[in-house]
Amino acid sequence: MECQEGAGCNGIYLAGAALPGISICFDCVRGYEEGGTVMKSGYQWLGACLMFAAMAGIANAQGLAGPSVGQPATQPAGQSAAAQYLPPFRPLAHGMAPGMKVQLLGEDAGQKTYAVIFSTGDEVLAGLTEFAETYHLAASRITGIGAISSATLGWLDLQKKMYRKITVDGQVEVLSMLGDIALYNGKPVIHAHMVVGYPDGAAHGGHLIEAHVRPTLEVIVTEYPKAMHKQADPDSGMALIHPETEDKKTK
């Protein structure tokens, strides 16, 4: 039905969109009582609010809306587009994982396996980097499970050569953490990805930028006898692993 506002509006209105006996125009966002009387402003805005709530409910049911409650937003409110990106390299301070404990589980033919256990409040990436520097790791495999209270993950934007932030705000399970350790400019560098699970079973993942543990994160690190080295890659802006020449000849 045509809006009863007149020539100023070419929209339509839907009877009963908000409350019985009330119609809402989807163009000029005005409400009408039965008989076409323009509603008072207080009721008008009430009708508009109810309309948008109904539309949001439909969008959620059809999977058109954004992340549900407890899931990360791709761009938190109040942040500019520039603030949503992080460079691939950033300094990591020591002492960010005071509850971290390390145990050597086994050693065989130059290969060592460690358990690295984090406690509530520990920051994972800084802690793993400190561990790798302390134990002089140069070629390692990382696996982990546990739970965290918050995290920042990333998606690699090759055009910008930066990571777009994926914010995890709230208690989630760490369903999987996988990564490696290699040397870049003579220092060990962690490259890890993390997948987290929400109360409704939904999962999100990305490149690990930071994560804060609650109550524990159980990480197994296997160190190999021969070092891996990274080199800067100008096309991606990343530091990528480059196997040694003699390794290529044996393949």
Which regions are unreliable across 5 or more consecutive residues at pLDDT < 50? 7-24, 26-35, 37-75, 245-251
Q: How would you name the CATH homologous superfamily of the largest domain?
A: Hypothetical protein, similar to alpha- acetolactate decarboxylase, domain 2
CATH topology of the largest domain: 60s Ribosomal Protein L30, Chain: A
Estimated radius of gyration: 27 Å
Domain count:
2
How many helix segments? 3
User: Biggest β-sheet, characterized?
Assistant: 7 strands, antiparallel
Strand content: 35-45%
Given the C-alpha coordinates, what overall shape results?
globular
Helix/strand order? EEEHEEEHEEEEEEH
CATH architectural type of the largest domain: 2-Layer Sandwich
- The beta-strand count equals 12
The CA-CA distance between the termini, in Å, is 73 Å
CATH class of the largest domain: Alpha Beta
Please state the structural category. Answer: mainly beta
Overall pLDDT metric: 78
> What is the helix fraction of residues, given as a range?
10-25%
